[in-house]
Structures are given as C-alpha cells and as structure tokens.
Amino acid sequence: MTIKTIVGVLAASSLLTLSACTNTVQYGEATRVETTKIDVSSNELVTVAEKMTRKMLTYPTVEEALKKKRPKLAISPLINQTSDDSVDVSLIEDSIAKQLGQSGKFSFSNKTKTGAAQSAVTKDQLFASIDINVAKKIASTLNADYLLYGSLKNIIRTKATSKEVYYSFNLHMLDTKTGKLVWQDSEEILKSRKRAIFGI
Q1: How far apart are CA 119 and CA 8, in angstroms?
Q2: Could you tell me the pTM of the whole model?
Q3: Distance separating alpha carbons of residues 179 and 170, to the nearest angstrom
Q4: Assigned domain for 200 exists
Q5: CB–CB of 156/145 below 8 Å?
Q6: What is the average pLDDT score of the chain?
Q7: What CATH number is associated with residue 116?
Q8: Which of 72, 127, 141, 183 is most buried when burial is the number of CB atoms within 10 A of its CB?
Q9: Taking the CA of residue 191 as centre, how many other CA atoms within 13 Å lie in the half-sphere pointing to its CB?
C-alpha cells in the first residue's frame, strides 16, 4: 500500500468518525433537521402564538361576540412553567397584543393593571399557574369583557443516546360576565436530539 493510499484511508476514517458523533436537532414532524440547540426559541413561540391568534379571530363564538360590539379584552401575562428561563414570554405577549390590535376588533385593558391583578391572585401559589377558577378571580377585579390567559409547559425525556423536549403552549379566552370559556387552543412542539454512535 502506497503512502498516498494510506493517507486517503486515514482521512476517510476521520470524516466517518466525526460524522458519527454529530448532534442533530429534529423537529417533531420530521421534515427539518438542524445542528442547533434543542431548546425552543422565543421567536418560534411567537410564530406559534400568531397562528393561534389568527385561529381565535376566526372562531365562530368569537366572531359572534365581535358582531355585537367592540369588546374590551384584558391580556393576562403568560405563565412560563418550563425549565427554560431563556424563553422571553413578553415577546409572545407583545406579538399577540399587536396582532389583536391590528385587527381593530378589541379595545384593551391596561396592561399594568392586568398584570397586578394576576400577581395578587397567584401570590400565594408556590408555582404560578392559572386555571379557569383562577382566571375568574382575576377577571372579577378588571373592567373587561374578556380575559385572555395562557401558559407554556415542557417535558424533557432523556435516554442514553437521545433527548426529547416536548413543549405545550395553550391559550384561553374567558367571558368575564358568564365565567365560561368562549375559545381555547393549544399547540405542541417536539424537538429531539440524537447522538449517533459509531458502529450502531
């Protein structure tokens, strides 16, 4: 075997070893693979929130409510129940408020007052969360027709050669007069990372 041949074999072997140890991030629906971090980004969640907001505006019970008058909407701060402190929920809230404002179909309660009302109701909770009963208490302190609230959660599953992070983002719209939900929706994001091991 010539020196040139030996060098070529060693180079090919090195490339194979490197490619076998590559970490990849794969999205749940399996159409896209990226060599990026596995955590969801705030921009990804903004895109999901915009999609959910469009669905809300065209939902039959919401459309029916909007025919009668231009209701006042209070947007409660989103609850980040994930283990990822890097998620900026304020970007998501601003995106939702901007999209609803541009629709021209709502007037809005003061953001600061809504946030204060939520803090007052949830202050004794060890981990802040909002269900419909908590939402009703928040709504009772506000002069609004509807309350929009939601949360972001994640579940992490780690195995020997892979890691999956499942994100769940939900939104709810409460009629403050009847105490009933007029709309709710959830979107899910699944990201996975697999470490390929040479020889498997």
Answers
A1: 65
A2: 0.75
A3: 18
A4: no
A5: no
A6: 80
A7: 3.40.50.10610
A8: 183
A9: 18
3-state secondary structure of 180: strand
Considering its fold, how many domains does the chain have in total? 1
The predicted structure's pLDDT at residue 136: 94
State both tokens at 4: 């040139």
Q: What domain range is 109 assigned to?
A: 23-195
- Name every residue whose Cβ is closer than 8 Å to that of residue 101 and which is 6 or more positions away in sequence: 108
Three-state SS at 88: coil
Detail the DSSP E strand segments found in 4-161.
23-27, 33-34, 72-75, 79-80, 107-108, 146-158
Looking at the domain assignment, is residue 1 inside a domain?
no
**Predicted confidence (pLDDT) per residue in 164-185, tens digit:** 888 899 999 999 999 999 999 9
In a domain, 8, yes or no: no
Instruction: Give the integer Cα–Cα distance in Å for 164 and 25.
Output: 9
Distance CA 49, CA 113 (A): 23
Residue 194: pLDDT band with limits 50, 70, 90: low
